[in-house]
Design a protein that fits this description.
Elements: H1 4-13, E1 26-30, E2 35-36, E3 39-40, H2 41-48, H3 54-57, H4 71-79, E4 94-98, E5 114-118, H5 120-123, E6 126-130, E7 139-142, H6 148-155, E8 166-169, E9 179-184, H7 189-196, E10 203-205, E11 211-212, H8 213-218, H9 220-223, H10 225-234, E12 239-240, H11 242-246, H12 256-269, E13 285-287
């Protein structure tokens, strides 16, 4: 199938605005240590050589609605004019967010502590929506007509985890071919070091997430009291990092929806650098390993 039909459909509905600049990038957020078909997600992505949609993997850090002709199928039918109605699962777009304001944590950390920063060429074959497609957006954009950034800033969502312009990359995402850099949390250095060995991929480390249980308890109204209880259970020495949470994902004695909300609390309150820090102090440290 030709993803150009989806791009043209969205272009016809795109909100007026200037084209994206040459330094525009897209981020694909994920939890790198989540089990995906028997191995960590990052390892599986590197093994497959591609980043695949929920229609293929059956996993998501948002809502799991791709099964059959569920909600996500209907969203895509609406957004892309039926382009993907009968398409193979592997040809469907993958979801990310437009990189804004040089935030070292990435534009949509609610979907994971790690993110792939894609090369500029992927921006030109992407479509965009605001708000998130789960909320039935009426505002869309493409790289050459992008009014969504100003719309986002004007609307100022109350929750920082909702402040992103959703992206849909059409035509596949090859890893590492379409990836400019992989950005990881420092807590994963020891956990994922072996996975990265010998991979020809630029790796960066953002400042990191660390939150204590007391902080989550003080903000119990954010994601609920059941989140506070699970946070106390999973914490190590009273604190939670992305790697700590990773050790609990997939366990049969843990409700994955509550664990996801624990992650939201970590992402919201656990930044070790100030919110939105775009200066040098907040920039991700870079490590660019070549083949070994």
């Amino acid at each position: 199938m030709d993803p150009g039909a989806a791009l043209e459909h969205v272009l016809a509905r795109a909100l007026d605005g200037p084209p994206l600049r040459d330094d525009a990038r897209i981020a694909l957020h994920f939890h790198p240590d989540t089990d995906l078909r028997g191995e960590p997600t990052l390892e599986r992505i590197l093994r497959d050589g591609s980043y695949l949609s929920q229609f293929v993997t059956g996993t998501s850090n948002g809502g799991l609605t791709a099964e059959g002709r569920g909600d996500r199928w209907r969203w895509e039918q609406r957004m892309f004019g039926g382009t993907y109605d009968d398409a193979p699962a592997g040809s469907r777009p993958v979801y990310g967010a437009l990189v804004l304001d040089r935030d070292p944590y990435g534009p949509s950390p609610r979907f994971g502590s790690a993110w792939f920063r894609l090369r500029r060429a992927t921006v030109d074959r992407a479509t965009f929506a605001f708000p998130d497609s789960a909320q039935g957006p009426e505002a869309f954009g493409v790289a050459r007509r992008m009014g969504l950034v100003e719309l986002l800033r004007a609307s100022a969502p109350g929750d920082p985890l909702d402040r992103y312009v959703e992206s849909h990359v059409h035509g596949g995402v090859a890893v590492p071919g379409d990836v400019e850099a992989l950005v990881l949390d420092p807590s994963h250095r020891d956990v994922l070091g072996g996975v990265l060995h010998g991979v020809d991929l630029a790796v960066e480390w953002h400042p990191g997430y660390v939150v204590d249980v007391g902080t989550i308890a003080r903000h119990a109204d954010y994601r609920g009291s059941d989140v506070v209880g699970l946070a106390a259970r999973v914490a190590e020495d009273g604190v939670i990092t992305p790697a700590v949470l990773g050790r609990w994902r997939g366990r049969p004695d843990v409700d994955p929806q509550i664990l996801k909300r624990v992650w939201h609390s970590v992402a919201r309150f656990g930044r070790t650098a100030p919110d939105g820090d775009g200066g040098a102090s907040g920039a991700a440290a870079t490590d660019t390993p070549g083949p070994r």
